[in-house]
């Protein structure tokens, strides 16, 4: 019920101003003007395009059949993963002056020479330049294949023999069956045959499904997945780098017995660097995440998992897989930016939602909840913390940094396209900054390419900003639905910048945040789902709503201000959850307090429940609503409680 301030039967205890050092006991004049909002920083963060030849502009140079000219100066795919040349120098030869090959940038005019041998017979395909990294690379494969479980071996078999597009769709969790049915996906690898150790079984299913007019409800989605494979072959890279698969480097790498029939008899056409399976799988996963961003982080997790399964299979080394991930991101960025796919990608996004909402009989507003309705028993990607830990581990597979650890992040040209369906309410420049502020640190082997693809952490980027630098102004429009109506940023946000939220949507902050520039709500709803959601600065609610829903009291280190017409909502669980602790001035005059009880908490008549502590001031709410009970507000020098009357 609503209790107006003039009618509230409350207790108002005001301590006299004194010379003591405890400012929390200093009274503030209720008629004094409220403090100003946190100052706006003087700049807006950006992520300039690197001044190097862009993969997005040159993907067409990566041609599968171009064996002779798969070179640094002619092939964007080869160049993308060329930091491997710090670790390994492949056999090469100088191109004749008269050769007509399409050069891209000022790179050495070298092409691969013939690779005729194996690492252990004295004629490898090149020279190891960094023995420590190379040895760690092979040793990791030894450890993974020596210690793998049977479940891991089985997963490695399926990810090797199945079509990659079919394999990764189980990352859709509760939507897997609906996706596969809509796409009309099929596979013939449904179990591991008893004779798999001696017979090679190939998947004769349709991998990504049926596209075009033959599939009117999902054909655009399948067509987009198909388009992402344009100019996306890893063969030129394999030919150029001539780096053997791990089992050829060491007999201690144990290929999964069911995959021994898949070993190529000719190592000269079977290079390990880069992983084609990971490149294709991650490309499919990213495209599915684009079409259905509600399962974006889970699909990215699935793509990364397939890469690790290639190591567990004994077929690839970590560096092979890391480069495959880089190549997948680059190919996806380039093809999503291709003007020829502009209409198709919009149609695919719309079709994926229309078809799956219909197939699951789900309204758009409930679709996100359905996409995350699985448990660990039915969806192995149901736990965010596990997915996050696996992402961090799989980004580097335990390699230590070998170069500068604090090089500034770089964001490739066009990379923001990866996030345009995930953050429709952000501008393209803001999406670039999201990628920039979530990039992995520098210095890891092969990851420091000139454009920045190696350091892109797509999992982290799908979870919002990693830093607030300068002024971050976000406007959400709930009428647009989807993430524009409700979103959650789950990263730990640092930086000295300020967040300003406006509009009509709702945004949740769940991370262990430390940004210091303050938080201002000029509309919309900002929900604190962690004790440090608001960072360390002031919080100013000029309009809209601030919700306290963390499992422990939300901490505001500076001033906390709620102006007339704005609302402070508190979801109180009786154990500290939903409460607020303010370190500075508390200003509430003219605003609304809305309290509801969460997690089964049911206070009884006569109970007094503390809501706000630590604030300096005695100003009161103009309206107080406590769901389900008759209650009175109790004020005492910055402390606010409610007393349950009945």
Automatic annotation (TrEMBL):
Phosphatidic acid phosphatase type 2/haloperoxidase domain residues: 225-334
Superkingdom to which the source organism belongs: Bacteria
Xref: InterPro entries: Acid_Pase_classA_bac (IPR001011), Autotrns_rpt (IPR013425), PAP2/HPO (IPR000326), PAP2/HPO_sf (IPR036938)
Signal among keywords: yes
Keywords attached to this entry: Signal
Record flagged with keyword Signal: yes
Pfam families assigned to the protein according to its UniProt record, in alphabetical order: PAP2, PATR
Matching NCBIfam families: autotrns_rpt (TIGR02601)
Protein name as annotated: Phosphatase PAP2 family protein
Organism this protein belongs to: Paraburkholderia dipogonis
